Request: fold
Amino acid sequence: MNRKEFIELFKNWQVALLVVLLIASVFFIYPHVQDGKLATNLQYGLDFTDGTWLQMEFQAEVIGFETTRPVTDFLTDLRTEIDAEMYLVDDNRLEIRKYVSEAELRQIVAAAGGSLTSYEQGVSRATGEQVKEILEQKLNALGTRDAKVNPLTSLSGITRYVRVELAGVSLSQAKDIVGKQGRFEIRIHTTGNETEHVLYGDTITTVGIPTQEPPGSDRWGVSFTLSEEGAAQFRDAAIRYGATTDPESHWLDMILDDVVVYSAPLSQDLASQVQAGPIRQLFASTGPGQEGLNAAKNLEIHLRAGALPVEVTVAGSGSVSAPLGEYFKTMSVLAFIVAALAVGVVIFYRYREPAIVLPMIGINLSEIVILLGIAALIQQQLDLLAIAALIAVLGTGIDQLVIITDEVLHEGKVPSPHLYQKRLTRAVGIIMVSAATVIIAMIPLALMDLSTLRGFAIITIIGVLVGVLVTRPAYGKIIMAILSK
Reply:
């Protein structure tokens, strides 16, 4: 192929699109040397980095019910009997935020004048997403790198588990960070050692960073803002129990998971302000020096963490060490290279013609590069199953290129342009039907939030789409230009 023919080939929009995507993908992957090692923008999953995963189970259930009583009266009786928070998911489904067995719940519902029509352990999709947001806030406050929170939601919309992956965190640390419910509460001392509830963490709207108060002093603390409802609750409790008139006798306790994380009285100035009206902006002083700063940092985390609306228990856990992650990464790269070489050997044995084999291998590898570029762009984590999907795309891609090659060749020769285009169209039609079948098979895995299986499905679907829309049409033009010579 001379220079003019080469330029004409790349003027074809399908080939040009392939080249543009290939260059863009290399840019998104951004291979570079960092600290003496090859680094990229690819996001690796827990299989390839040291870290821990936790799978936590919600201690709650979503039930279907029927009743002839007014729903409000029915729910009031249920709430009194079960002593738990509960919310209507829709007209005849109820989320109960406390674990109760199906047999026990059936009796309680019957006693309240209703009947149980369905029972699924877990929470509604909305509650699952709320837990995800709270955990992400908690992890961000801790500065945890590469944290991933995935609610595992079934097709019925019920979330029974939430999976958390933490890179660079030990199993014991992970359980301390996210394995607890994290229920945050402020209580006030009344008489003796008795305390009364003031407000929960969900009324805290914003939290500041540790600062010195007054500025330049040695005393540290954390400012936080209450919602209007929270400020009213805070004022009512402070006045009712005497914290505004005798603050030293009525300290405030901040409690996380039944453990007091902060305890102090109102200052005289704040007590006077609260007596006069609701105060939304508060400052919790933690003391002087490094000890006060450390206490302020911990309090900031607790204030930001909020409260999980539902109790959780650790249903499963695991960890990957740094050497094991590197081993997995090395073996995955080796497996991919072996797979590519095996594909090349089989193709060469079939056609015995470098003019056919080299474009096929080049197109196949370019498809993998584009797929990795898209993964880097959308920050899709690559784990062992994602690598398996890449190898599967490599194999299915060669299958489809063989279909095109065999279809367009006529007794070992390239047919006329009209017949070539007709056969290419027929080959692409076969490939599109095959690709549609794969995509339909992968869609349930992509939608069901099955953790790593979801990544496998996403990589497979993207690979199939890149092949059908970009690399297969481009290969058809390239192979015709080459074989016509």
Q: What stands out?
A: The domain at 58-123 is CATH 3.30.70 (Alpha-Beta Plaits).
